[in-house]
Amino acid sequence: MKIIRDVGTGVDLETVLSKPLVAHLATSASEGPRDSPLWFLWEKERLWIIGTAGDTFPKRVRQTPACAIGIVDFDASSGTFIHIGFRGTAEVKPFDTQKADRLLAKYLGPERAAWDPRFQALGQENVLICFQPETVVVRDQSYQLPSST
């Protein structure tokens, strides 16, 4: 995995990717490009995404594994604007309950019993998407807030 950073970017990739941010998966379809906003888990230099029965992106990944993922950590109150862009390939894998639970706990908290019932009921009819990045572009586009006078 090649990491490309803007000059002076001290962004810690692991720290940003541990946050409950939204990833945008860009895939190809015969009708044109598609974008899917998703939750993700970053483990062992791979992004993992849950695909449920009604999702169409697993089919697109099977047809065209080359894709891109964009993640933004933005906070208007502090001027934080970090962009991480991935390019690589994805593969549809069998559902792994333990991995899916780690992914969901990142967004919903550690108490599975407190999760929305639709997330508690995920099972083997679902899949996991394993995205393997070839390149990662890390950009710190943060800005200074206007000073109050």
Give an overview in words.
- The chain is α+β, with helices and mostly antiparallel strands and 149 residues long.
- Helices cover 19% and strands 42% of the residues.
- It has a single domain, classed as Pnp Oxidase, Chain A.
- Strands 1, 2, 3, 4, 5, 6, 7 and 8 form an eight-stranded mixed beta sheet that branches.
- A hairpin with a 2-residue loop joins strand 4 and strand 5.
- The radius of gyration is 17 Å and the shape is globular.
- The mean pLDDT is 93.
What's the short story on this structure?
InterPro entries: Split_barrel_FMN-bd. This protein is of the alpha+beta class.
Query: Major β-sheet, in short?
Result: 8 strands, mixed
Count of alpha and pi helical runs? 4
The number of distinct structural domains comes to 1
The coarse overall form would be globular
Identify the quaternary structure here.
Answer: single chain
Could you tell me the CATH topology label: Pnp Oxidase, Chain A
Name the helicity range.
Answer: 10-25%
Order of helices and strands: EHEEEEHEEHHE
Strand segment count: 8
The parts where pLDDT drops under 50 for at least 5 residues are: none
Annotated CATH homologous superfamily: Electron Transport, Fmn-binding Protein, Chain A
End-to-end C-alpha gap: 46 Å
Percent in strands: 35-45%
Radius of gyration: 17 Å
Taking all residues together, what is the mean pLDDT? Answer: 93
The CATH architecture can be named as: Roll
Structural class: alpha+beta
The first-level CATH class is given as: Mainly Beta
Protein name: Pyridoxamine 5'-phosphate oxidase family protein
Organism: Alkalicoccus luteus
InterPro entries: Split_barrel_FMN-bd (IPR012349)
